[in-house]
Design a protein that fits this description.
The complex is a heterodimer. Chain A is mainly alpha-helical. In chain A, about 65% of the residues lie in helices and about 5% in strands. Chain A has a four-stranded mixed β-sheet, sandwiched between helices. In chain A, strand 3 and strand 4 form a beta hairpin. The longest helix of chain A is centred in the C-terminal third of the chain and has 41 residues, at about 195-235. Chain B is mostly helical. Chain B contains five helices and no strands. In chain B, helix 1 (about 5-60) packs parallel to helix 3 (about 85-105) and helix 2 runs antiparallel to helix 3 (about 85-105). The chains are: A mainly alpha, B mainly alpha. At the A-B interface, helix 4 of A face helix 1 and helix 5 of B.
């Protein structure tokens, strides 16, 4: 890859996000087209139902993400007097990013990790485990804070809500259609087209595989946003070494955050799920070695590149 | 659609386009002002720390008066600066004088171990970081503004919006010029 500067990495990761989200949109159309081929035009009505259910279920949690995630992870809000040094570091990154001051929370957990959430920069929350605050020195902590503030700056709660809505709509559509297949097999004769058997088989395969493809695309979006947050963090601090050595500490640490809910796995700086149990195509984070190597390449460019 | 309607539609589209570009220039210009105000806020914070720091170091190293004077006079000069270039020059002098003061402190183990000094050191290093990030944020904003002022189509409206290119905030600091030249 020719582009190793943070500016190049930022635009490359943004471009890939658009491509992936575009791919998810295209997948919705493929599923709809397959449904029309298999069942005929009478199924058109379920498309808005599936999209509507997905929208409502995801958008509610997106809009109240700050309070929901705090409750799910057991994070408690901090005041400046509770940890002045942490607030000093956060104030620094706030100045570097030009963002409003976020709410700060702490999760009582020995595993070093951190996350950011909130529907927009005005409602942002960044949270740290007690483990990460103990394990990091000042420069490393600054890198971690910058990574979390980058998620806020890049509106990643919104991006993952869009990805989750699309993947959810595809999963619902495919589920509803496969059910229809079992319960209304006899109604197949009101299909519009004559019934090209090859087209029918392809449609069936598409309907079965679409949810898996949607999950993969959603995970790929999450991985791009993590790589983008690393690059944006360097844009804020101009110090790739801080975040790089923080990731090295995380890579060397084997303790894992206690709650392993897959629902909130993507929001942590380091994936709380076991590396082995998640295959590369479904991982929410790029391999940590890859992230360290990208930051190392930025270090070799020197300051202000 | 009649010809008149089409013409009106085109005029409306052009008007919308012009307003967008005009507002973009004004917004960029305002954010440069805000970024500069942020630098001044952080410089003020640092300036307020200096008397306390000097007093603390004096308690342990009273005969290093030349270093103290340098810090105090640099601080005094910084308060009178107003233009970007003057503020940046005064900022550079304070930065260097403070570095000299901390180098002096290195030679006094009792001072370095005192709780008062340790607390001041964290205050000072966070303030130095804030000053540095405020400078960087200002320069990034100036870069966006200057690009908009010099590139088409925004450059066509810079005159009407009364927005022009701004100067970068450049601190004379020998340390920050030592960019590593090694490439892997």
């Amino acid at each position: 890859m020719a582009e190793v500067s943070f500016r190049g990495l930022q635009s490359a990761n943004r471009r890939k996000t658009y491509l992936l989200l575009g791919g998810m949109g295209a997948l919705v159309w493929v599923v709809v087209y397959a449904a029309l081929t298999y069942f005929g035009t009478s199924t058109v009505g379920i498309v808005p139902i599936a999209v509507g259910i997905a929208l409502i279920s995801v958008w509610g949690s997106y809009y109240t993400s700050d309070s929901i995630v705090l409750r799910m992870t057991g994070a408690k809000l901090l005041q400046e007097s509770d940890n002045p040094n942490l607030f000093n570091v956060i104030h620094e990154v706030v100045i570097a990013s030009g963002l409003p001051m976020p709410k700060v929370a702490i999760v009582d957990d020995l595993a070093p990790n951190a996350f950011a959430t909130g529907r927009d920069p005005e409602h942002a929350v960044i949270a740290f485990t007690t483990g990460i605050l103990d394990a990091m020195d000042r420069d490393q902590l600054q890198g971690v804070v910058a990574h979390e503030m980058s998620h806020v700056a890049n509106r990643d709660t919104l991006v993952s809500a869009v990805a989750a809505t699309t993947a959810g709509a595809i999963a619902l559509l495919s589920d509803m259609l496969t059910r229809m297949m079992w319960f209304s097999g006899g109604r197949r004769d009101d299909r519009d087209n004559g019934g090209n058997p090859v087209a029918l088989v392809i449609s069936l395969i598409v309907l079965i595989l679409a949810p898996i493809a949607a999950m993969m695309l959603k995970s790929a979006v999450s991985r791009r946003r993590e790589a983008l947050a690393d690059a944006t963090a360097v844009a804020f601090t101009r110090n790739p070494a801080g975040l790089r050595s923080a990731l090295e500490v995380l890579a060397a640490d084997s303790t894992v955050v206690h709650q392993r809910s897959t629902a909130v796995a993507h929001i942590w700086i380091e994936s709380p799920l076991d590396g082995k149990s998640v295959s590369k195509l479904f991982a929410t984070h790029p391999p940590i070695e890859e992230r360290i190597a990208a930051l190392r390449a930025m270090e070799s460019l020197g300051p202000n590149k | 659609m009649s010809t008149i309607e089409i013409v009106l539609l085109i005029i409306a589209a052009i008007g919308f386009f012009v307003v967008t570009l005009y507002n973009r220039l004004v917004r960029l210009n305002v954010s440069v002002d805000e970024a500069f105000a942020q630098i001044e806020v952080q410089l003020k914070r640092r300036s307020d720390l200096i008397p306390n720091l000097v007093e603390t170091v004096k308690g342990y190293a009273s005969h290093e008066s030349a270093t103290f004077e340098k810090v105090v006079s640099a601080r005094a000069k910084a308060t009178s600066a107003t233009t970007v270039a003057d503020v940046a020059a005064a900022d550079g002098m304070v930065t260097q004088a403070l570095r000299g003061l901390l180098a002096v402190a290195e030679a006094y183990p009792d001072l370095k171990a005192s709780t008062n000094f340790l607390a001041l050191q964290e205050e000072l290093s966070t303030t130095e970081n804030k000053v540095a990030f405020a400078r960087q944020f200002y320069n990034d904003n100036v870069r966006s503004l200057n690009t908009a002022v010099k590139t088409i189509p925004t450059s066509l409206f810079a005159g009407i919006a009364k927005v022009s290119a701004r100067v970068f905030y450049e601190v004379e600091d020998p340390q920050s010029r030592q960019a590593p030249t090694v490439k892997f």
